[in-house]
Structure formats: structure tokens, C-alpha cells
Design a protein that fits this description.
Length: 372
């Protein structure tokens, strides 16, 4: 797994950015329940919000491996911040693939600069993994869609000013761009989360919210199979790499703690059962990194196998991140639950990775269907 010169330089750039601006303050983000506006501005200035946007629209047009390295480093620093890159990137990906030329020219430069922040509004209070059962309705009449319904768990919904909303139009599903200030849309916080506490999740309420037909992405009926599907595929790519970064953070913290913490007359790292946990963390991370690389290579080559491999990488990486966080708590003992250490945040955030962009059980079914 050799990196090209440009990818090595980008990896160093991303690591330095996270070490300076993210990792030291991530617990404070959690305490405040938000990511500072100046950090989001820095993400736009650095081109990170435009990671997957073409240069002609002001983006950095990162290849799949470089974009993965960005998500890995951000995930190492803060999974809450990672979720912004994920949902913003999902909307940008959908626009680049399915948006009209007018829509691309209108929105992609703003997404690349960070002038506009985007969120992916699919989940509902009663609809999670079964995305085909969305209840939010969209009625088309004389060039306007009228939206009614509720979306929930929308990551960075409180900060976003553009939403990609999935709604049922008769028996089919449509994907619509809805601006924050559209009359009939109200946004409220989901403030009871234990993980991803700074992701500023929101509940979106649509009451006779009128959206012009020009904001339709693709065609009515493409909403789930094509548009949500491609967005979620890109999201799995990002979450897989981000989970790798979180697992690495757990290992780094555990190695440092086990080297300095003395119990029964010797450092923790010299105790065989601690060594077993550290060895398992290291081995799982190596395996997860190989899966992420394989998926990114396929994605770079536009190989259709990338969809299955993306599911495999996301499924495996989220699982090993949960195990790494659990073992990190065990190694740290009571300190693992203390606000004085980031381990408690790693533990809370890791479990979220097994739910977002498709639960582990959805991934198991998806993988099984494609290997039988």
C-alpha cells in the first residue's frame, strides 16, 4: 500500500490540520454540542468541503484514496466533524452525478467553498434502515412540489442551509433540494444524543412547504434506487475510512497509556492480557486499512465491485472501531470513563458508526446477497 508523492503530502497536510485544529478541542466540541464556525470556515478555505468536487467548480477533486485519507485523519480527531464531511460530500456527490448543469453551476461552487453547507435528509422518526418506507410526501402541481412530513437524525441539519430531501410522490420517491429559508420548513435540534454530540443533528418539519420543480434531482422514481443509493455508497466510503481513523486513535491512546501506567510493579504494556488487546487492535486496524485501500482503488477505477467492497469495508471497520474503543476503555480502567481522557468520546462515537449510512445488519444482508 504505497502512497504516491502527492498523496503522502496530502496525508501530512491532513494530519497536521487535525493535530492543530481538531483533536485537542474535540471534547470541548462535545461539551458545547457544536463545531465552531471558524473551524467550518477553515474546512472550506482548505478545500476539504470540496474534496470530491471538480476543480471547474472550485473543488480539490481528490482521488478516492486521498479523500479517504482525509476522512481517516478527521475521524481520528473528531467523528462529529467527520459527519459533516460525510453528509456534505454525499450531497455534492449526488449533484455531480445526477444534478442538471444548471443545478451544478448554482450549487457546487458554493458547496466547495463552504458558503453553503449541505445535509442529507433521508431518515424519519419511524423510518431508519427501511428507507423505502419514507412517509414525507411531495405533491406536484403546476411546477411546484408541496412537502409535508418530518425528517430526523439529520447530521449537521442545524448548520446546513441546503437539504437533499427524499419524499414520496405517489408510489415513487423523489429527491429534492430544499433551501433552509423555504417557507413551511422548520428546523429544531435533536439534543439527546450520546455519540456524535457535536454533529448538530436536527429534526426537519415540512408543513405545506413549496419547492419549485427545478429543485428536483434526476427524475421522480430515481430518489431511492439511484440518488439515495449513490449518496449512501459515497457515505459508506467516507465512514469506513473515518472509522479506521477512530480505531487508530484508540490504539495510539492505549499505547501511550499502557507505557506510562504502572500496575503490580510494571507498566501495563508488559502485562500479557493488555498485550493481547493491543495486538488485536493493531491487527484489526491493519486488516481494515487493507479493505479501505482495496475499496478506494476500485472506486478510483470506477469498478462496479466498489459498491460491495465499500459495504465490506464500512461493515468491518465500524466493527473493529467499536472493539478498539471497548478495549481502550478496559486498558484505561476508570480513566476510560473520565472527561480527562478522550476514550469516553471514542467509545460513544464508535457505536454510532455501526448505525449510520446503513446499520451493520443491513450491511450483512447486502454482503450475503452479493456473495451467494
Amino acid at each position: 500500500m504505497e502512497l504516491e508523492t502527492a498523496q503522502l503530502a496530502a496525508q501530512d497536510e491532513f494530519r497536521l490540520f487535525v493535530d492543530r485544529h481538531v483533536a485537542p478541542f474535540a471534547d470541548d466540541f462535545d461539551d458545547r454540542g457544536q463545531v465552531p464556525g471558524e473551524l467550518i470556515t477553515a474546512l472550506g478555505t482548505g478545500g476539504y468541503l470540496g474534496a470530491n468536487i471538480a476543480r471547474e467548480h472550485g473543488g480539490r477533486a481528490m482521488d478516492a484514496i486521498t479523500g479517504g485519507l482525509l476522512c481517516e485523519q478527521v475521524g481520528r480527531g473528531s467523528c462529529s466533524l467527520l459527519s459533516l464531511l460525510v453528509v456534505h460530500g454525499m450531497v455534492a456527490h449526488v449533484l455531480a452525478r445526477w444534478g442538471s448543469e444548471v443545478q451544478q453551476k448554482q450549487w457546487l461552487p458554493k458547496l466547495a467553498s463552504g458558503e453553503t453547507l449541505a445535509a442529507f435528509a433521508l431518515s424519519e422518526p419511524e423510518v431508519g434502515s427501511d428507507a423505502g418506507s419514507v412517509k414525507t410526501s411531495a405533491v406536484l402541481d403546476q411546477g411546484w412540489f408541496t412537502l409535508n412530513g418530518t425528517k430526523k437524525w439529520t447530521s449537521f441539519g442545524l448548520r446546513a442551509n441546503l437539504y437533499l430531501v427524499f419524499a414520496r410522490c405517489g408510489s415513487r420517491v423523489a429527491a429534492l433540494l430544499v433551501e433552509r429559508e423555504t417557507p413551511g420548513l422548520s428546523v429544531s435540534p435533536v439534543s439527546t444524543m450520546s455519540g456524535f454530540k457535536a454533529a448538530q443533528m436536527a429534526c426537519l418539519e415540512f408543513k405545506d412547504c413549496r419547492v419549485p420543480e427545478s429543485q428536483l434531482i434526476g427524475r421522480v422514481g430515481f430518489g431511492l434506487s439511484h440518488i439515495a443509493g449513490s449518496g449512501l455508497d459515497y457515505g459508506r466510503h467516507c465512514v469506513g475510512w473515518g472509522g479506521l481513523g477512530l480505531a487508530q486513535a484508540c490504539l495510539d491512546a492505549s499505547l501511550a497509556y499502557a507505557a506510562r501506567r504502572v500496575q503490580f510493579g510494571k507498566p501495563l504494556k508488559e502485562h500479557p492480557l493488555i498485550q493481547e488487546m493491543l495486538a488485536n487492535m493493531f491487527t484489526n486496524i491493519k486488516a481494515a486499512r487493507a479493505l479501505c485501500w482495496q475499496e478506494a482503488r476500485l472506486r478510483h477505477a470506477a469498478n462496479p465491485q466498489m459498491i460491495l467492497d465499500g459495504a465490506v469495508a464500512k461493515y468491518f471497520t465500524s466493527r473493529i472501531a467499536v472493539q478498539a474503543a471497548s478495549d481502550a476503555v478496559q486498558i484505561h480502567g476508570a480513566n476510560g470513563f473520565s472527561r480527562d481522557y478522550p476514550i469516553q468520546r471514542y467509545y460513544r462515537d464508535a457505536k454510532v458508526l455501526e448505525v449510520i449510512e446503513g446499520s451493520s445488519q443491513i450491511h450483512q444482508m447486502m454482503i450475503a446477497r452479493n456473495i451467494s
